[in-house]
Here is the input.
Amino acid sequence: MPSAIEDYGLELSVEALIDQMKSASDISFHYTYDLENVKLSQQAQINLYRIIQEALSNAVKYAECTNLSLQLYKHGNIITCMIEDDGMGAPVDSLDNKKGMGIESMKSRVKALSGTIEFSSKPGKGLTILIELPLQVNKEK
Here is the structure.
């Protein structure tokens, strides 16, 4: 995927990922983005792509959701990525303390980008993942 990010950018690479997942599931995906004039470093784009890939894969595999929304945008000097599903949800403390490789990988990648990641969920009410990354740390030099 790094070459696709280099050739097409993060937004279109994520769109291609979603198209692949659409064809392999019955989930309705909603993707909006606005990173116009944002120049993220290649490494930041790859890390953010991998975080999104893991979050979407987890939702498809485990959430039992019918709708999945991904928003990727710039607000001030922050890149915000919000992933929401309408699946079965989970207690937030179990996600914050989860030691599974996927969640740990997401947390590690967010930390490497000097960002934050928050999980918001209630059983039966879906899951929201909010990722915020400071632009100045992750911009292309």
